[in-house]
Amino acid sequence: MTKPTTLKLILSTFILSAVSFFLLSPSSSAATINVAGGNDETVANSNCSLSEAITNINNGDALSYPECVSSNADPFGTDDTILLPDSPNGTITLTADLPQIANSITIQGHGMGVSVVDGGGAWNGLATGNLEDGLGLAITISGVSFEQNAIMGISVCAQTIAVSDVRVQNAGIGSMLGSADTGCLIDSVSVGDSDFSNNGNSAFGGLYIVAASDTTNHPQVTVSRTKVNHNGSLNVIPYDYFGSGLVIMSLCTTDGACLSTTGAHTTLTYVDVSNNTSS
Questions:
Q1: What is the DSSP string of 199-226?
Q2: Cβ contacts of residue 50 below 8 Å, gap of 6+?
Q3: C-alpha torsion sign, points 168, 118, 87, 40
Q4: In angstroms, what CA-CA distances link 149 with 13, 84, 117, 172, 179?
Q5: Which of 103, 120, 114 lies closest to 54, judged by CA?
Q6: Which residues lie below 8 Å from residue 229, measured CB to CB, with a gap of 6+?
Q7: Which DSSP symbol is given to 99?
Q8: Which helix H or strand E contains 162, and what residues bound it?
Q9: What is the pTM (predicted TM-score) of this model?
Q10: What's the half-sphere exposure (Cβ side, CA atoms, 13 Å) at 93?
Q11: Would you call the peptide bond into 88 cis, given omega within 30 degrees of 0 as the criterion?
Q12: What are phi and psi of 57, to 5 degrees?
């Protein structure tokens, strides 16, 4: 039978170890920023706009726009979240292109058709900067519609891309997840419960997934319960090469030195691709 003194010593040692673990372990944080509907402005006032929130997350602080601070009191971290507005003020009207995303980020709305980013036919939606800078980034977009964007509704490069409950319509091109640039290596792309329709009035339309690989990675692409309908493309070089609709391209970025099983592992489930045309 263990003596009481021994039990106390064991318990004290356990508690000390647990406290030391929590004190010495590296902490992670993630800010959550609520943005307002209406015009997407970049002026100092009491409203935090989508552009201002992206800028602060890129910078890792709220110095540029103090009105965009974390609602959960956490400091900016490595995977911050932007919460889009709900109805009846759920539409964000762009007055310029959104700032290019430079860090991992989650864009979360209240549902497509409820949270809306409207480009007015003149401005672009979400994009990363140099498409060779996606290594290590994770981008999640959910519950939002991108409408009437001048060129791209969504054009992002990241190591992990997740899109769900998203609509992109009436954009000049549509959406591109990934890129042919050599630095844009994809581990996984998932698209679910989304709608990419009526795009392509200025070039090519639909949903384009470019899964680039090298000697170290093998991309996983999953598209489920998604519609890609009524997209068009211009029948002129170079846009006639892409066509319209759903295009999944698997590229080797190292001139044939990729894995022996190079090519994206692609899974399509309940995907409606119809009435896409070239003009």
A1: --SSSB-EEEEEEEE-SS---EEEEEEE
A2: 35, 40, 82, 84, 92, 98, 117
A3: positive
A4: 61, 18, 9, 6, 19
A5: 103
A6: 195, 196, 197, 198, 272, 273, 274, 275, 276
A7: P
A8: strand 160-169
A9: 0.85
A10: 4
A11: yes
A12: -65, -40
Q: What is the CA radius of gyration of the chain?
A: 22
- Give the C-alpha separation, 188 to 178, whole Å: 10
> Using an 8 Å Cβ cutoff, are 231 and 205 in contact?
yes
List per-residue pLDDT tens for the chain, 279 residues long: 545 554 444 444 444 344 333 333 334 578 999 999 999 999 988 999 999 999 999 999 999 999 999 988 778 888 899 999 999 999 999 999 999 999 999 999 999 999 999 999 999 999 987 655 566 789 999 999 999 998 889 999 898 999 999 999 999 888 989 876 656 778 899 999 999 999 986 667 889 888 877 666 678 999 999 999 999 876 655 555 566 888 888 776 655 445 444 566 889 999 999 998 876
Single-letter residue type at 178: G
Q: Which residue has the tokens 């263990």?
A: 2
Secondary structure in 3-state letters for 1-69: CCCHHHHHHHHHHHHHHHHHHHHHCCCCCCCEEECCCEEECCCCCCCCCHHHHHHHHHHCCCCCCCCCC
